[in-house]
Fold:
Amino acid sequence: MERGLFITFEGADGCGKTTQLKLLAEYLTEKGYEVVITREPGAKGLGEKIREILLNYEGDVSDRCESFLFLADRAQHIDMIVNPAVCAGKIVLCDRHTDSSVAYQGYGRGLPVERIKMLNELAVNGRHPDLTFVFDIDVETSMSRVGQVKDRMESAGMEFFNRVREGYLEIAKQEPQRVKVLDASKSVDEIHTEVVKLFEELL
Ligand code: TYD
Structure:
């Protein structure tokens, strides 16, 4: 491919998106594509330090500070990892991206959604996903998958995660061309089949 692709995987904690990302990566590698697996926050380098603060800092973190840290990580990630790979013709599969900020900091924390979208634009500097999968699951199931040991974000509570879920569904409603919602309560194989079908449609 002359220009690669940028595909993002989204959903609440415990929705199974990372498993699906890996399965699609295996499928594409077997087909001969060059695949880059990456994530936000904290792909590598500076991002890993930002991730450490975001997930493990034990003091108070203001909602706006939290937003800017995710955005700072995103700008670094786009410039250092995503853009070079897409420009080199690779398929970039990214675990979380801009929609996480809209769903978590916008709908979840209650910051103005339009402003978060504007700040996202600043962070990505024109690079947008070609396709986004949202793995939708009810909050009780996703929380039970996360388990007892929770990081700072996962400790935000049921109401927070209900708002996050609504946020994702709203994003999908607004951008149906880019954002595809999958029922994450189905089996891993069933979901993988749907992911591959949607990927083929994109091609
Ligand atoms: P991670 O351990 O990567 O969670 P997961 O495996 O569910 O992706 O932690 C990332 C956490 O950060 C997750 O709770 C979602 C949250 N997050 C935001 O709140 N805003 C963002 O912009 C991003 C990228 C992630």
